[in-house]
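ingest -> validate -> predict -> emit
validate: passed (alphabet ok, no gaps, 175 aa)
predict: started
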Amino acid sequence: MKLRALKLTPELLVSFLQGKACAYSSNLPKDAELLDAKVDLFTKQVTLIVRSETFEDVAESMAVPEFKLTITTAEPQLALKPSAPSAPAKADIKAESVGAKATQPQVSRYAAKMENEFSPEQRKLLSFTVKDDCVVVKPVTFLKAEWEDINEVVRSLGGKWVKGDIISYWEIPLE
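emit:
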């Protein structure tokens, strides 16, 4: 498994996408392929899973090692510009309407409080995401004896276990 995890802040990723003053040094291999991206709102972290033939091979049973990306501050040399002026895309309109919601910080705050109901050991075994009107709690590893304790916490918060064909998780409604 020739994978590495890059960990960034959402602000750094947005700054990069906007072409603002940040540039990555060349320590990322030229053959790097982006395989997955995950945003964790609670820890304010974006994790990118990258594959490259130059990475040292790691056993699949091991956790994906972190790749230390060297970041330097510099003026961008090239800004991405649309090839022709056009009407705003649906994604742009949706992004503006989502940004206009005043309730979003309250939802994140409530979800963060919900996460704090779990012990630090339990939080290491779980991922938390906000989806529509609930917090989705997914195990990141196989839970053995911990499942019952976590299930008790979820049920005390008004949540339930959702059994899926491939992925099962807990849903806790936002009040």
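DSSP finds five helices and nine strands in the chain.
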